[in-house]
Amino acid sequence: MTIFAKILSGEIPCHRVYEDAHVLAFLDIGPVSDGHLLVIPKEAKAHLHELSDDSAAAIGRVLPRLARAVMAATGATAYNILQNNGAAAHQAVMHVHFHIIPKLASAGLGVGWNAGKLDGARAQELVASMQAAMNR
Predict the structure, then answer these.
(1) pLDDT (tens digit per residue) in 111-129
(2) CA 125 – CA 94 distance, rounded (Å)
(3) Residues with a known catalytic role
(4) Which residues neighbour 83 within 8 Å (Cβ) at sequence distance 6 or greater?
(5) pTM score, whole prediction
(6) Which end of the chain has fewer CB atoms at under 10 Å, N or C?
(7) What is the CATH classification number for the domain harbouring 17?
(8) What torsion, rounded to 10 degrees, do the Cα atoms 27, 63, 70, 114 define?
(9) Torsion sign across C-alpha atoms 78, 15, 46, 88
(10) In terms of residue numbers, what domain contains 52?
């Protein structure tokens, strides 16, 4: 059982910002910056690709509204939305969750970006493979 399952069951308290039938949003107890918010589906899945369409849609509907609320409460004019899948991608709690992290001066998420180049032939292979996977 993850810490998020314990929060959802009421076993562990949280600072709730938003809740509906599919989603819970609460303040992160180890914030990267003031107002750092966690958004979780009530459906207990470890990875984003495992979520039902209903849970994914519910999160998608509420993320913009929560981002606006974080900005209004903190005065931030910039923010990151972070979502990791798997330990190798830095996921620490194996329950889907999104971070809304306000960027406030030097506080907030620091991101490195190791950009490469997209080869045209490889792009065509990837597009065909991804489209085939979506049609299954």
Answers:
(1) 676 667 777 888 888 888 8
(2) 31
(3) 97
(4) 48, 96, 97, 98, 99
(5) 0.86
(6) C
(7) 3.30.428.10
(8) 90
(9) positive
(10) 3-134
